[in-house]
Sequence to fold (692 residues):
Amino acid sequence: MPTLICDCNKTMPLDPAKLGAALGEPGLPLHSSLCRREAASFQQAIQSGEEVVVACTQEKRLFAEVGSQTEGAVSPVHFVNIRETGGWSRDAREAMPKIAALLAAARLPEPEPVPTVTYKSGGRVLIIGPMQDAERAASMVEDVLDVTLFSTGGAGAQERKYPVVSGRIDSLTGWLGAFQFAWTPTNPIDLDLCTRCNACVAVCPEGAIGLDYQIDMDRCKGHRACVKVCEAAGAIDFQREAQGQTDNFDLVLDLRETPAFAQHAPPQGYLRWDGRDLPTLLKLRELVGEFEKPKFFVYKQKLCAHSRNEKIGCNACVEICSAEAISSEPSRQQIKVNPNLCVGCGACTTVCPTGALTYTYPRAGDQGLKLRTLLASYLQAGGREPAILFHSQEAGQALVEDLGRTARLGRAQGVPANVIPVALWHTASTGVDLWLSAIAFGARQVVVLTTGEEAPQYLSGLKAQMAVAQAILSGLGYAGVHFELLQAQSALALDQALQSLRGTRQQGPKEPAKFAVAAEKRATLEFALEHLIALAPARPDAIDLPPQGSPFGTIAVDKDRCTLCMSCVSACPSSALQDNPLAPQLRFIEKNCVQCGLCATTCPENAITLQPRLLLTPERREPRVLNETKPYGCVRCGKPFGTLKAVEAMLGKLSGHAMFQGAALERLKMCSDCRVIDIYSAQDEAKISDVR
Fold:
């Protein structure tokens, strides 16, 4: 695969010999003006039929135009930024291992396509707000959109150019192409019939009617002069019964201070406008037609620890979703994810302890392959102490590039040579499984950059996950702080935060791992833990973990309370709790426990408590007995039919009941077969057949 590197008019100290050796391309040529005078080299490369890597994103559009005009250009082209991410920094000369890693990752094949979600918009827009503002917004989009106004007051223009409704908003739900709007007209004036002749305004003695053509009922004294003067149009009727109305819209533009959707990430197709932000209206104008977005998640109900028997256990995904796209369905023992509302942040997959929700854009395997390639290439090229910097591919990437340009002008130090930027759709989409995998692959630190665009619950979730991951590494004896959550909204703030990492030192495994990240979250965690534990400086029996967000742990059973009813076994979604078909035993496999809490919620005796931890002994994978008791044998035939504790508890609770006295209480000590025999053989009890 040919690689084309350019030092951008000699502004980057690239070393083609080192880069060529790292990439397996001896004699790698160095260009200085690949996008201009040396464009012929690009044309020659794309005529080869091989995939081509171009180390420039600045002129990506120009290269595309050159390619379209080049005869025989059939090579796929991959673009990668090595300038702002490494070549423009204070220690650019030491950044060759990082640049080699970025070039190596650019050679990876494109991830396979994921399923998509389709939106269809005909351009019917509802604008909600004061009349004068709504009409102003409508005038800017009416040439491409079908406008309906919902008036919240104010004075509109004399000419009525758009349908207008008003009243009380009952609900607004939906998404792009499928909004459902419900309202109840509460004003005696029907704005659809009103001709805006202003006769009612002029005749009202109390001045209760404004140019918004709404009647202030507190000021109206019931003269009804307005009704008489509007007799021809018939727009005013004080006796009209308020009936709810509904309508469907493709788009909604909200001009009010209080939005219709309170969540951090409102539905696509719902926009807010402050009267000044023209890009919002430009975006609104473009939302006509058919659109596709990736389906960002895969849900496997069998793995879900959310609910059993209509009891709620793990609720992490529902609580963290900023788009309110996830809802609980305890009757079906699952959650429900609305793909139309999902914005692809991936926070739900990050906090999911079981892997029931997995992220697909890109898939975990593709993310793992990229991380392993980056780190392996960096280390092979002689790099030391690598740090992974996860950032969003929009605001985060813009901030990294701004830092590079600022460093080029000498106003900042730039991205350090050991910090490898990795763009994500959203920074909340990675969690403890990929972070620990990165450490196992050779990273000394994982840094997540946030830029203020993230929902508050995302930051809390990331911090909780980092606390768990850090507790594991610290417990294994790896010195230093391996996980950092950086918050920056300017290039200088990012520069200061990255430079503060220079003085820190982290310890990692002596040898990098080579495992492939699996599609299943728990499997990936096991691979990473096996490698980290095998090379760990310390091997305690167990590591205590923070209670929030821990995917590992044990449970404690109060043996005095537990009757071995086995309700917890039927509720456990991960088979961590098991019974023994040969003896009254409650057994537990700690490796399977996800700390969802369903066992504790289900237990009728409140005998179970959660204990977050990571057990490192072999017993972690082996069943162990948490509680056991003697079987209770039938007093008639001797066959075991329950546990001693359960039967004794039942007898204790029912001994005072009028229905369970004498022989009836004694039958509770029998198995089901003997109980029936005893009932039918009893001579002192009335039978239904004896009733005449």
